[in-house]
Amino acid sequence: MIVPSLNTDTSMNSKATRTKRKTKEETTMAIPRIDLSMENRSELSEQVVKACEEFGIFKVVNHKVPREVILRMEEEGAEFFAKTSSEKQQASLPNPFGYGCNNIGNNGDVGDLEYLLLHTNPLFISQSSKSISNHPNKFSGAVNDYIEGAKRVACEILDLVVEGLGVQDKFALSKLIKDVQSDSVLRINHYPPNMNKIKQSTWDWDMDPCATSSSKLGNTNNAIGFGEHSDPQILTIMSSNDVAGLQATTHHGIWFTVPPDPPHFFVMVGDALQVFTNGRFTSVRHRVLTNTLKARMSMMYFGAPPLNWWITPLPEMVSSPQNPSRYKPFTWGQYKKAVYSLRLGDSRLDQFKVHHDTPY
Ligand SMILES: C=C1C[C@]23C[C@@]1(O)CC[C@H]2[C@@]12CC[C@H](O)[C@@](C)(C(=O)O1)[C@H]2[C@@H]3C(=O)O
Ligand SMILES: O=C(O)CCC(=O)C(=O)O
Ligand SMILES: [Fe+2]
User: Fold this and answer.
1) Which of 238, 299, 335, 340 to probe ligand 1 with, by most ligand atoms within 8 A of CB?
2) Which of 129, 312, 325, 342 could cross-link with 136 by S-S, CB 3.0 to 4.6 Å?
3) Catalytic residues
4) Which InterPro entries match (predicted)?
5) Assembly ipTM
6) 323: buried, middle or exposed (CB in 10 Å: 19+, 13-18, 0-12)?
């Protein structure tokens, strides 16, 4: 049961916001909190499955990733984003990786953010660190430790999912992101403060490389930091600094805020996990609104299989004739190609759905 609770998120609750937006869209849900130190494993796996089914997003506490590992990653991110625009532009890596500002993907999506997108392959990290940081070893050390920690949490959650669903192969999903060929990526997002709120009348928008046309025009009350979308991968592991902005939708399409909680991780169900569970889980649609005086920084680990891995429902999810596969088989590489040919907010899984009343 999803229980709406009082919205205590002040950054989303300014007077202007209250009058501008419908209260229906202002709800804060008490999203599930999963305590990984819980000893009763079957209860834990039940809780994880329920959280994936009902919300597609939940908080994980007692995850054992040292606070210092998360802080070091955050510090490295902050150091990078504090550089000048031309220094940051030097971190250009093969598309879609490297530094990006305002543009998301290749199809015209924009947001009030800048970011670093990196493949999690250690060789890729060590190579790209040279163009990102003046202290490449320090940077790559922090990034690799963060990836290791986030990957461990992702594997633990996936093992609990598999257990809770009664899947025989205990590592059916975690083995995909542990694979050396895994296509997992790391994204560090930086959402500058909402300049309109700071009311810097002297701000020179034309000199600001990250100013969008909307911010130049002053349309920045609740500007879109990162537009509505679902993550294409299996599972997303996210941490952020203490600045709000993330929102997600219920399965009924009601937006709710996800208040930040820095020592903990948030987990989101991605499109590939929706297919592996034959639609028992639904990937969560989410977005980021920037409406604060402080910069938000988020660190996202997107756990993905190798490019040649087939994305099809786990055998136990299609074990009866009443429960046929709802998706045509495709590889992760094919899916990525489709993802990158579409806009951020598109429902990309639609083209892979089987319509059971018509033969395919
Ligand atoms: C507009 C786009 C950016 C994106 C690729 C896409 O064509 C559609 C999905 C986007 C997304 C969302 C989650 C992750 O941040 C991301 C890295 C991913 O795998 O899919 C981004 C892609 C991106 O920014 O390159
Ligand atoms: O920055 C955030 O909190 C979320 C960003 C996001 O959804 C993404 O990078 O895919
Ligand atoms: Fe996302």
Assistant:
1) 340
2) 129
3) 296
4) DIOX_N, IPNS-like_FE2OG_OXY, IPNS-like_sf, Iron_ascorbate_oxido_reductase, Oxoglu/Fe-dep_dioxygenase_dom
5) 0.99
6) middle
Other beta carbons within 10 Å of 357: 5
- Cα separations (Å) of 325 from 54, 127, 249, 329? 21, 41, 25, 9
- Phi and psi, residue 300, nearest 5°: -115, 125
Q: How confident is the prediction along the chain (360 residues), in pLDDT tens digits per residue?
A: 333 333 333 333 333 333 334 434 556 678 999 999 999 999 999 999 999 999 999 999 999 999 999 999 999 999 999 999 999 999 888 899 999 999 999 999 999 999 999 999 999 999 999 999 999 999 999 999 999 999 999 999 999 999 999 999 999 999 999 999 999 999 999 999 876 555 444 445 555 555 544 444 444 457 899 999 999 999 999 999 999 999 999 999 999 999 999 989 999 999 999 999 999 999 999 999 997 789 999 999 999 999 999 999 999 999 999 899 999 999 999 999 999 999 999 999 999 999 886 544
In short, whether 114's Cβ falls inside 6 Å of ligand 2 is no
Residue 344 Cβ inside 6 Å of ligand 1? The answer reads yes
For residue 194, the Cα-to-chain-centroid distance in whole angstroms is 21
Place of tokens 């208040």: 259
- The residue type of 142 is A
226 lines ligand 2 (CB under 6 A): yes
Neighbours of ion ligand 3 (CB under 5 A): 231
Cβ of 288 closer than 6 Å to ligand 2, yes or no, is yes
**pTM recorded for the entire structure:** 0.89
DSSP string for 109-129 = EEEEEEEEEEE--HHHHHHHH
Q: Which residues lie across from 61 on neighbouring strands?
A: 35
Give the closest residue to 179 by CA, choosing from 312, 332, 339: 332
183 CB-side CA count, 13 A: 18
Count of CB atoms situated within 10 Å of the CB of 319 = 12
Q: Mind listing the domains of the chain with CATH numbers? A: 12-352 (2.60.120.330)
